């Protein structure tokens, strides 16, 4: 038997997750011979960096501007008698699979390349992938099996600001915008501590940015932490561990804070009755209840 011609292809792909969905591309039926979905990505051009290649391919196949991780996994597939175009070949595919993410406010995916191998792109429920309701390539199954969300630990400082109100004590809270985790929930004003920044300085800066008022930071009341997996404001899926330093704080008497942050993770600021937090009348994060118990 004559030896088949050898063909080798190097391609770059990305696992792009958002909550319980994954970004996939549906292959042209002339390639897949039926409905088949795969990871967005494709072949590297000669001399092209894999990071640049996968970002380019994601845009061509989904219309979305993605970022990808520095690290990647490598998958090798060897089929000594593959159908390569019109002719059989000894085919070897080397697949470089990155973690990818797109902004949370990105538009719906759509194919922008002309006459490419992709005819559709969509956010597909992971449940449909795992159940087989949506047929996917072996690469999707392998990549999901090995995927681990990015681990991120964040130190943040928050302010417990109280004042008397007409119907009882009030607490200053901010509402999380659609760009943040737990969108629509209320939390304490505050945020991340930059590298080398004193926590009290960070807190004063964050209150000014979120509420438009200065604050005087007092004593450290306690430490709270939270651990969950979800979509970060960047759009990246994260295994997130937040460590929260809760400080007593005051704002000028008579101050009426308001949301001044533009395109940030805060979309509203309010003095909220403490009783409404305890009764569950508003959706407040656990750090608020923890702070009020200190």
Automatic annotation (TrEMBL):
GO molecular function, one term: hydrolase activity
PROSITE patterns: NUDIX (PS51462), NUDIX_BOX (PS00893)
Keywords: Hydrolase
Nucleotide-binding among keywords: no
Domain Nudix hydrolase: 7-153, 152-294
SUPFAM superfamilies, A to Z: Nudix
InterPro entries given in the database record: Nudix_hydrolase, NUDIX_hydrolase-like_dom_sf, NUDIX_hydrolase_CS, NUDIX_hydrolase_dom
Pfam families: NUDIX
Domain of life: Bacteria
Family: Belongs to the Nudix hydrolase family.
Protein name: NUDIX domain-containing protein
The species this protein was found in: Nocardioides guangzhouensis
């Amino acid at each position: 038997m004559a030896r088949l011609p050898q063909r080798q292809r190097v391609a770059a792909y990305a696992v792009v997750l958002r909550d319980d969905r994954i970004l996939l591309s549906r292959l042209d039926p002339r390639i897949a011979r039926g409905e088949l979905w795969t990871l967005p990505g494709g072949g590297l051009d000669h001399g092209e960096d894999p990071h640049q290649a996968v970002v380019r391919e994601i845009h061509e196949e989904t219309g979305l501007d993605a970022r990808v991780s520095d690290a990647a996994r490598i998958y090798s597939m060897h089929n000594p008698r593959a159908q390569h175009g019109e002719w059989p070949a000894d085919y070897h595919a080397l697949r470089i699979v990155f973690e990818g993410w797109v902004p949370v406010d990105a538009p719906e995916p759509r194919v922008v390349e002309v006459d490419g191998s992709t005819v559709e792109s969509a956010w597909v429920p992971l449940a449909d992938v795992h159940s087989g309701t949506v047929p996917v390539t072996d690469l999707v199954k392998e990549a999901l099996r090995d995927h681990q969300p990015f681990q991120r630990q964040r130190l943040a400082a928050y302010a417990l600001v109280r004042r008397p109100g007409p119907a009882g004590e009030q607490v200053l809270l901010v509402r999380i915008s659609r760009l943040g985790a737990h969108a629509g929930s209320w939390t304490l004003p505050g945020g991340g501590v930059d590298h080398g920044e004193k926590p009290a300085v960070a807190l004063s800066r964050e209150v000014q940015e979120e509420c438009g008022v200065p604050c005087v930071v007092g004593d450290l009341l306690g430490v709270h932490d939270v651990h969950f997996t979800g979509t970060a404001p960047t759009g990246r899926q994260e295994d997130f561990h937040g460590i929260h330093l809760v400080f007593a704080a005051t704002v000028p008497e008579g101050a009426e804070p308001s949301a001044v942050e533009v395109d940030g993770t805060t979309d509203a600021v309010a003095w909220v009755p403490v009783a409404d937090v305890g009764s569950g009348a508003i959706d407040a994060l656990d750090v608020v209840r923890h702070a009020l118990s200190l």
